[in-house]
Design a protein that fits this description.
The protein is of the alpha+beta class and 223 residues long. 33% of the residues lie in helices and 31% in strands. It has two domains: 100 residues, Alpha-Beta Plaits (2-Layer Sandwich), CATH 3.30.70; 106 residues, Alpha-Beta Plaits, CATH 3.30.70.
Length: 223
Amino acid sequence: MNQNDSIYLLAIRGTLAPKTLEAARTIHNQTAGHPANVAAAKSLGDLSHMVYVPLQASPDNEFLILDLWNSLEGLNQFFANPTVQEQAGQIFTRRDPVVWAPAGDFTSYHIPSPYGKNERYVAVVRGTVPSHKDAQQYHNSLVAGATNKARQRGHLSHDPYFRLSPTGTPESNQFLAVDVWMNAAGMGEHYQDPEIMAGFGPIFASMPASSIWVHPVGDWVEW
């Protein structure tokens, strides 16, 4: 994989510091969403910044940020800024920032949404695979066999990643899949399909963690 040609996913999942979502929205827009910070992030390679909350309200007050970067150097430079770290502390009391690299040779796809289909649901699956080779075989077979059925149920995209390992260290077996849907009922039907669920088993070394997210209410700065 050529790191200069890759688009990396920065996923930050954690617990909100503000007591209400509206207060969190205000702080987010004043910090991460401040025009100067947005301009700085974009200039360093931040292509997309999206925010999410769990589909079903969680007592843990969880929050998820998904950013796409095409410069690891820029990403590291941006988050090395003490002010950026201090502002992140205003949004989260606890956070787990992880950089994910595209899983080479793992099937991914993006299908356009029909006009007027504006609902968006993001399904995230994270777990450990026994090996890249075996996981790739089972993953690609599952995706190839389920693409048409998933699309009929409202599937828009599938993106697989592996956790980015520091230079000179073994590749990580931590795997992440991010799927976007335009139909909640269809998504639920898909993830309750016994045939689909059976195909997940061989991919992972143990039961993966899964979650479903939606855009929070209100005007949040995104790009």
